[in-house]
Write a structure and sequence with these properties.
Blueprint lengths: L17 H6 L16 E9 L5 H11 L4 E11 L7 E9 L8 H19 L2 E3 L1
Antiparallel strand pairs: 1-3, 1-4, 2-3
Helix pairs in contact: 2-3
């Protein structure tokens, strides 16, 4: 084809059978639409005992069941010079409402609920 039409670059040719492609598609996958209302972000920096695992932190969050929590990110882990010192976790929470924009009071209430659970269940010291 390249010689026939005097083309400089390589020519690629493909034939696709749409019936075969459509028959193999996964119809079970679904996508969630983008949120209509903006998410609110809250961060927590807390000191926890060295033996506290990230899974224990996630379990505490699941048990607290804060409303409108869409995503949790661990953005920092800091350890002192020795293993006897506590380590610090930096967490970011995204609260995303489905029916309206959250107020600061609602976001703060969810944040405070999580902080209280961290203090109670993980013996965490939250850095303010």
């Amino acid at each position: 084809m390249a010689k026939r039409y005097d083309l400089r670059d390589a020519v690629l040719l493909a034939e696709l059978n749409l019936d075969v492609l459509l028959a193999r598609r996964n119809t079970g996958k679904s996508f969630k639409p983008l949120p209509v209302f903006p998410a609110i972000r809250r961060d927590v920096a807390m000191l926890v005992p060295e033996n506290t695992t990230h899974e224990a932190v996630l379990q505490t969050i699941r048990q607290a069941k804060p409303g409108n929590l869409e995503l949790v990110e661990l953005f920092d882990v800091f350890r002192g010079k020795t293993f006897r010192q506590p380590k610090e976790y930096g967490l970011r929470f995204y609260l995303s409402p489905s029916e309206r924009t959250l107020t600061d009071a609602e976001a703060n209430a969810a944040h405070e609920k999580l902080v209280a659970q961290f203090k109670q269940r993980l013996s965490a010291t939250v850095r303010e």
